[in-house]
Structures are given as structure tokens and as C-alpha cells.
Amino acid sequence: MSDTAYVQLLDLAAGVFLLAAVLMLWRRELASIIRLFAAQGAALAALVAILGVHQQHPELLGVAAGVLALRAGLLPYLMRRALAASGEARETQPLVNVAASLLTAATLTLLAYAVSRPLVALAPSPATQAIPVGITVVLIGLFVLATRRRALSQVVGLLLVDNGITAVAFLATAGVPLTVELGVSLDVLLAVLVLLVLTARMRIAFGATDLDELRELHD
Amino acid sequence: MNSTGAAGAVLQLVLVAGGAPLLAGLMRQVRARMEGRAGAGVTQPWRDLRKLLRKEPITPRGSGPAFRAAPTVLMATALVPAAVAPFVTTASPLDGAADLIAVVALLALGTVTLALAALDTGTAFGGMGASREMTVLALVEPTILLAVFALSVRVGSTNLAAIVTATLHDPLRVVSPASLLAAVALAVVTIAETGRLPVDNPSTHLELTMIHEAMVLEYSGPDLALIEWASAMRLTVLLGLLANLFAPWGIATGASLTALPLAVGVFAGKVALLGAGLAAAEVFMAKLRLFRVPELLAGSFLLALLAVATSFFLA
Amino acid sequence: MRRLLGKIRRTGRVAEPPIPASEQPAPAAAAEFGGSVQIRHVDAGSCNGCEVEIASAFSPVYDAERYGARLVASPRHADVLLVTGPVTRNMADPLRRTYEATPEPKVVVALGDCARNCGVFAGGHGVIGPVSDVVPVDVEIAGCPPPPEAIVAALRNLTGR
Amino acid sequence: MSAVEWGLAAIAGLAVVAVLAALAAPQRVRPTTVGSCTAALGGAGIAVGVLAAAGRRGAVWLPELLPLFGVRLEFDPLGGVFTAVAGAVAVAAALYSIGYTRHGLDSRTVQAALPLFVAAMLLLPAAASVATFLLLWEAMAAASLLLVLAEHRRRTAVAEAGGWYAVMTHAGMVTILLGLLLFAAHAGGETFAQLRAADLSPAMRSTVFLLTLVGFASKAGAVPLHVWLPKAHPEAPSHASALMSAAMVNLGVYGIVRVGFDLLGGGPAWWWLLVLGLGAASALYGILQAAVTTDLKRLLGYSTTENLGLVLLGVGAAGLFATAGNRALAGLALAAALLHVINHAAFKTLLFLAAGSVLHATGTRDLDGLGGLRARMPATTGLFAVGALAAAALPPGNGFVSEWLLLQALIHSLPATAVATAVTMPLAVAVIALTAGLAVATFVKALGVGFFAKPRTPAAESATECGPAMLAGMGLAAAACVGLALAPTLLVPALARAVQVAVPGTEAATTGRLTLELSGITGSMSPLLIAAALVVAAVGILAALRVFGARRARRAARLWDCGGGGLTARTEYTATSFGEPLQRVFDDVLRPEQDIDVTHVRESRYLVDTIHYRRRVPDRIEHRLYAPLLAAVRAWGEAGRRLANGSVHRYLGYGFYGVITLLVALAVTR
Description:
The structure holds four protein chains of four kinds. Chain B has helices at about 5-35, 45-55, 65-85, 100-120, 125-155, 160-170, 175-195, 210-215, 220-245, 260-285, 295-315; one strand at about 60.
């Protein structure tokens, strides 16, 4: 594919990737958050595929397929099931109100840009140019982990962090070895399963999954 | 600046002034059809205007010059952008005013005059509408200017004609994340500025839920006609900007007069399309609570900032 | 959203075929309306039966809006005052003020038997009389309550569409 | 002796004459004489300033006037701009003061302080040596303090405000003193020429800059050093508020530009990021407070903080661009900042004088108690409207022009190489935009609630138009606003020269006679064209209405009150209710204190008798930052008092112990 088309597509994929993260911060309905997460997974897969095609790494295409299956298919499916099991439809009042967290996300973006500047400077290329996007997603994920109450949103936060790391890894290096990606994905899968089980247990124990109620466990 | 430019300017002025009520009619018609109605027809707003112009103007006792002047000023602030913005031609003779910031500020001036008029009457609803309108306006400004920023970074100018021409020369720019994000942000603020759902419900009868309507409750006859007409024109102007900043194809750039008719047709088509889309989308929306609106605007602000950010970190 | 869209497609158009305008001659003022009538509804003490019918007259089924009639929020915007119910003592002045607030040319429609001749409330406590005792009435719509068709027919007569 | 020097002589002479007149003239004619003398003084200031800004130089050295150092005055275009602004403000304020003479405002001290204050402000930008600068600075501070305290007999709040002002301004004075003395000591000379020539270690340069920045920023009313401003401005007599708010605060900016750019010749990026940050914070915080306050003059005071914040933002951006080596943009940003200084001076003078007339006529500054003035004081209302349009930064007002220039400078800074620029500029643009939006809301509130609708109190009911002198003062300011709004291009050469002093090697930021065309950047905007287009459109519309619609005559009818009884002033929206949505949106920043107490009727607790709603939006910075500080100071004071309880013996005892310890020390060290 031609260089300009490659750059355009890459940027577009990166843009969607970032936008999905932001919208996850914006929306309250857990269902639509999950939908957005699936979209982000797809964008990530597209990103990997584009890189693969451009760098003529056929195995990357395989990885892309894997990413798609896991992040746009399996994980959202699991989460949807957890959601159906728990009666909670919405993220009721997060610790930081939505407007404020959106503004925070804006500053996080600029921060990510500032810190990743030297990284990009090492080897300026369309791929590395997009690294800040990945870092932003990581930061947003951490922010979600820190400020959202529902256990499911916490899972989403964790997955956002992981998506961001993966994106950075692919953008920074010319294709992560397949094994690494598999390893990462597997332990993420594991973590998610554990969390989901926990969520279920918590719901059985407390009836709700408001993490603030975990404090009761500790005293 | 040439004869074509002048002709184009006049043409687009007439087009916007004459087409705005039709756009409003189209949007109502689309909405009616989606609600299973027959609809009053696209030309209904024109009938309303004609009748209102014939009716008797009323000045409430205890209101002052601000109340009297507001409709005219509002109309003027809608006419000037309609003449200068690159809708039909990029060679408007009034290029000195064809600055994106200036156009936005002019539209804001219109809102302000209406708010002052509402306060001038001294009714509770007038004050309420003015206060809410000003709140929304204040929160919309940052988004607009950041979107402007994002658009002008790639061009190096806030001059509308310059932005449009640059897009014409480099169409790939449009699909860049920066301009897509900016487009979404601008769309949101357009909705907020023109008082459409989910920010404000243009066809509400409940004063307590009103924003824009509450300010014009006292107007009647020709005054009301001017206000309705001007509001329709503001909507047209903003949609037109949205259309031509991101999809300027078909606009007349050269000095050939033959390009103008085509440009008119294309522009009308684009705006009609946008309007219909907006109306269709509104069917699926409920009005936001007033204090959820800042959330929406914060979101659009974030999009605009992301647009700026991506415009310099994604290549 | 997808579901709603599907519903819209399935439902299609529910508006009934046009209802012919009523035969009674339209008031002179209506000549100036030219296919556009803004209506301010005043409940002067109705039992809300008429309100239900008005609502259905403007519902998608009868869709009075297709003839250029529209309900508005302020008498300043209105051409027609649609008055329902017998005028009660507390609503007499508000009704007068509403009439005074409406710009010329204006038409007053007395909707329902109560508005025309106090109907079942005639001589009731707190009722001071039919609408025509308070403000000049141009059009009357009979019925208790009048069916939507009648309302639409009368309005068509005013809009002239 | 050059024209500028003659002008300086004239300023000095007129100042002396005015002061003598204030002391000598009988009370009856005192305000007139002093006012006209001060106006003449201002006129001389304008003349000198314009000459200097036009590039005419002039220097005076009076060795004997001040022991050891002598007074050294020298004009350059940069100083000229500020002197001209101060002069113009002085003319308007002085004319106004002729008519504004109640509650002992015509006492000797107050009348004498006015010309002294003006003269100090006119000469300060010409100071060419540290000693002269500090002398004039102190004179300015002292004279303005006297004016602030003018009405202390009538209102206790005045004394408190005066206290805050005295403390803040002198604290600032001290830091400036330290900074400049440090500078002079290391430069080995106290004239500005020597300071320019000096080469200091980077650490020392930064110390000097920071020390002076604190002082100048507090004078410019920048957050968090602004606390004196919203206190002193409302309490001072209005022409004094105008002078302080439109002329004096500018000199803080002047100081930063003079020291930072001219004397220190620019510095590292972080200096300017700091200035930019200060500016952004001030702009946002100032306008937020203004948007929710209901005191008209307090609102204007906060709006001063906002506008000076925008100016500082421009100055900071200019410094940033200059360090990045982008001289064209630096020039543009600084020109925008200076233009905004001028515009702000024009409309803020007008607004404060108009507010003064309102206070004069109604005796209240509380917007919730005003209203309906447009019928009773039409001229004042019209003039205030002109000022409000400018302050709201909407076209065709003059505020819009400078904000447009500022935005242009920031917007064209991208794509940038420096991370700092790339990250700060979008935020800066956002801040300016939000500020502009809130300013619109604020001044719609001030005009719409304060002057329109029905009067809310008997005081407002019985208001009457103010006298010719006051109207003349306002009229001048309004004329300045209109002129600046339509033909800002006339100032371009002067601004270019002034900018050159600060950022050498820049050409004029804009060109074009009727249109502002940015040089080096594509971008143009013609205020005149916009205004003309609006007028033409309006006329066209009216003509069209004549021809086509409106055959019926206009009828006057009662307000539409939903058919209920007549609407009284109690049902009007007040300033409090107008600002409520914004206050709610920015709750986390403003932290308003509000309490509602409902009293029920005796019979049943379900029936409400009365509801009292009270809301205060305290200045949070003042509470959080200064309250602890004051507490600490008070503690020290207590300790001090125990030492000094007024007994003569104890003081003698201190002296005695002192001598003894000294002798012992000598004995030991020998």
C-alpha cells in the first residue's frame, strides 16, 4: 500500500483507538462502555494489521487476528455476561464527576504527548508518532481504575491499560514476538476471569459491587 | 475580490436568507414523517413568516430600546456571516470579516442582544432564558475556538476562505483524525448554539424547560418574524460552515460565473442533507437535564482539544 | 436505537386521510392567516375532556399540524385562542388578559359545549358564563367533548388549507 | 531642550500647581480648579506619551532633586505608550471628579492626592534609574492609598480595604526594592543603561526577575496576589477606582516588560511560562468571580484581574516565543498585549465612571437592588452599554480586536518544536475562550440586570441622571472606546516601536490601514468593515420592514404575565439568580456558601411561612492563602506587644541592656 494511504489509515486507527477510550470515560451505561471497548479492540487489531501489511510481517497479521478475537470478541463477551448477571446498568456517581474526568483526560493527553516526545524523537516515523495515543490510553485506564466505583468499570480500566501497553509495544518495536503477545493476552485473560469471579462473589456477599463497600472487609 | 466574488456573495446571501425557512421546514417535515405524521410541508415556515409580518407588533409596557432593537440586530448578525462565509464562493469581497473567530463572535453578539432584550422585559421567564442561554454560550466558546484552532493549525490561518481552499487542495486532510474530531466537536456546539435537542427543545411549551424560547415569549408580529427567521439563518450558517469546512467540494473558487449555479446547488444539497440528518437524529434523543448540558459541552471540549493534540502528534 | 428505527420503519405513516374543512363560513380575520395558524389554548375551567380531544387532534393520527396549525407557548405568538370549558370566576380575568395580549388579527374559538353555553355546568357555583360573555367568540365547535375530526375540520376552516 | 523635555517640565509644573490649588483654593471652587488642573496634567501626559511613542526621545537628569542619586527621567516608545494611556485616563477621571464631590470628597487631602497620583503615574514609565523608579512607585502607592481611604469616615469597609491595599502594595514595593537593589548592586550602577549593560549570573537574573515579578504582579492584580483589588476598587471613590483600575495596574505590566525584556533582555522559557500561567490563572479566576458577584464595582474589579490576566498571558507568550527565537510571533503577542492594555484602560475607565454615576444616583452598588435605570439615567446606561460591549470582547467593540490579535498569536504558534509551546498553547487558547465566554455572561448580567427591566428598590426608582461634568468624563472614555474599536490600525506604528524596545528586531506586527493584516502570517480582520456591514444590514432590514411587512401600528400592552396578576419587581431575575447556573457549573472552583432557612406557619409544619436564601461566594484564595498568613502575623504581633507595653522605663531598659551588651561584645572581641 502507498505511504500516504498507510499514514492516513494508521492515524485513523490510532484516532479511533483514542476516541473509544475517551468515550468510555464519557458514557455511563456499562453496556455501551463494553461496546466501546470492543470497538477499541477492533481498532487495535486494525492498527496491528496495518503495521503488519506495511512492514511485510505476515505473522503480525496472525497476531492481529488473535487480538481481534480476544479483545473485540472474547473479553467483551465475558464482560457482557458478567453485566447480565449483575443487575447494574450504569456507573452511578464516579468519584470524580464526568465533566471533570473529561477535562482530566484532556490534560492527560497533553501530558502523554509531553512525556513521549523524547521516545518519538529517537526514531521519528508515522508509527512512533502515534505512541502518545497508546500512552494516553494507559493513563486514562489508570484514571478509570482510580475513580470508578463499579467492579466492571474497574475491569474496563485494567483492560484499557493493557490495550494501551499493547498499542505502544506494537508501535514502538517493529512487531512484538508472537509469544510475548500471547503471554500478555493470556495473563490479562486470567486477570479478567479472576476479577469477574470476584465480582460475582462480591455481589453474592454484598448485593452490590460498589468497591467502597470492600472497606467493610478490611475492618 | 472580483465581480464573481461580489455576485457570489449576493447570491449566497439570498440563498441563505431564502433557504433558511425551507431548511427549518425540511427538518420539521423529516421529524413529522419519522413520527408517522403527514407533516405541514417544507414551505410552512415561509407561510408562518408571511403571516407574522402582517400581524400587529406589540411592545410590552416597561420595556426599553433593547427590546425594540434586538430583532433587527439579531437579524443583522445573522446576515453578515451569511454574506462573508465561503458558502458559494471563496472570493467574497468582504474578506476582512471572513475570519472564523469574527464570524463566531458575530453569532455570539446576536445571542447577547436577544438575552439583553429578554432581561429588558423584566419577566421571570425572560430572565431565566437569558441566564441559561448565557451559561450555554459561555461553555460553548472554548470548544468552538479550539476546533477553530485545530482547523487552522494545518492551514496556518483562521481565514475561512483560506481553510476551505486548503482543504480543496488536499482532500486527504479531511479523513485525518484531527479534522474528524474537530468536526464532531463543532457539530455538538452547533447543536448547542442553535438550541436543538438534546440541549434545548425548540418546540417545547413548558416555560420551565425553555432556554431559547423563554427569551422570545414577549415578541409578536414582525419582531417575532425577524427572530424566527434569524434563528433559522443562524442554523443554516452554522450547518453551512460545518459542511464547507469539512467537505467544501463544489464551491466556486475561480472567476468564472458558470461555477456559481453549480456551487449554489451543491451547497443547498449539503446543508439540506445535514439538516435532515440532524432532524432524524433528534427523533432518537431526549432533552438533557440542564445541568447535564455542561457534561456534554465538556465532552465536546475534550474532543476539540484532542483534535488540536492529534493535529500535532499524529504526523 | 436500532430497535426504534425498525419500529419507525414498520409503523410507517399513521396519519389518517385528510378530513374536509367544516362548511360554516370562516371569520374575516382568518383571511389574513394564509395557511398558518398559531394556537394558544386557554383552559377556562374545563373538565379536561376537551383537552384530551385537542391532544388527539394534534396527535400523529389526526395530525392537525399538516394543515398549518400549531400550538404555541405564548399568546403573543398566537392567532387563535382555543378556549375550553365554562369561564370560572378565577379564569375570567386571565382570559381577558390573554385576549388583550394576543396581536391582531385574532380569532377566538369556543371549543366544546361548556365553552359555548356552559353545558352541564350551567348555573354551577363559580361559573360566570360561556366564553362569549367574556371575550368575543368567532368560531364555535359543538360537542361534549367535540370529536377530533370536528376540531380538525374547524381548524382547517381557519387555516384555509 | 526637546519637546518631550518641555512636556516633562509641563507635567511637573502642572502637578505642583494642582496640588497648591488643592491646598489653597476655597472648598467651593476646589473640585473645579483641581479637576481642570489635573485634566490639563493628563493632557500634558498624553502629549508627552504620544511624542515618545512616535519615537521622539528626551531625557532629564536632576542630580540635586534626590540626594545621592538624583532624578533621572528618559522617555522611549514603550514608556510613552503607558504614559499616554495614564494621561488619557487621567483626563476623563479628572473631568468626572469635578462633578463627583460628595461625602467630603472635596477635602484638601483627597483633592491634593489626585494630581499627585496622576503625576506619579505619568512619570513612572519615564523613570530611567532604580532610585527614580522606586521614588515614583512609592509616591504612586501613597497617593492612591490616600484616595482609597477618602471615604473612611462613612464606611468601615473602607478602612479594611485600605488596610489590605496598604499591606499588599507595600509588600510588593519591598520585593521590587529588593529585586532592583540586588540588580543594581551586581550591575555596579543604578541607571537603567548600566543595568542593561550588566551581565549577571543566570541564578542572579532569575532571582531579580522573580523578586520584581512578585511586586509587579501584585500591582497588576494577578492571582494569587489580587486580593487587594476587589476590596480597594469598590471602596475607593469611582474616579479613583478608574485611575487605579485603568491606569495604575497597567504599570505592573509595564514593570514586568521593562525588567524582564528590556533590562534583563529576556530569559529562560520557565520565566515566561510562569508569567503565562499567572496570566491564565488570573483571567479565569477573575472572570469566574466576576460572573457570580452581585456588587457592580466588585464585578468591575474582578474583571480588571481578568483583563490584566489576558495581558500577562500575552506577555508570557511573547517571552516564550522570543526565547524560542520566533521574533515575529513574539512581536505579535506583545503588540496584542499592549493593545489590550490600551483597550482595557478605555473601557474600564468608562465602566467605573458609569458605576460611579449609578452609585452617586442610587447610593447602592448591589445589582440585586438596581434595575430600571435605562429610563432614569439614559445617557449613563448608553455609555455603560458601550463599555460593556467592549468588555465582553464582542465585535464591534474594541476588546474584541485585541483578543483577536492575541488569539492569532497563540494559534499560529503551532506546529511548534518546543514541547512547552505545543502543550501550553492549546490550553492558553482554551483559557482565553472560556474567559471570553464568561465575560459575555458577566456583562450581560451587569447591563441587563443593573440597568434594564424594573427598578428593584426605591433607591433605584428615584435615580436621576448625573451632572454634565461626569457625563463629559464618561463621554471622553466612550469616544476613546469607539475610536479604538473602529480604527485600531492607527496605533500600529506606535505599538511596533514600543514592541521593538522590548523585543529588538521585530517589524510591525500588523499592516494595513483599514484592515488588520498580520505581517508574516496569513490572517486579516477589519473591525471597521464588520461594524459597517452590521450597520448596513440593520438599515437594510428596517427599510425592508417599511416596504413589506408591518402595515399595522405598534401597540403597547401589559407584560404577558400568564394571565395572572401584574408582574412586580419581585418576580424579576436578580443578578444572584442570573449567575446561579454558572455558579453551579463551577461549584468545585468557587465553593459558594449558601444557606436556606424555612420558617413554617405556627399551625402546621407543612405550610411554609417565609424562606430566607443567602448566598456568598467568598474569594477562596483569600481564605485559603491569606487567612493563615494573617493568623501567623497576628501571633507575632501579640509577642511583640508583650515586649512593648508602653512603659517608658521598659524602653529605657531596652536601651540600657542594648548598650551593655554592645560594650560586653566589644570587650570580648577585643
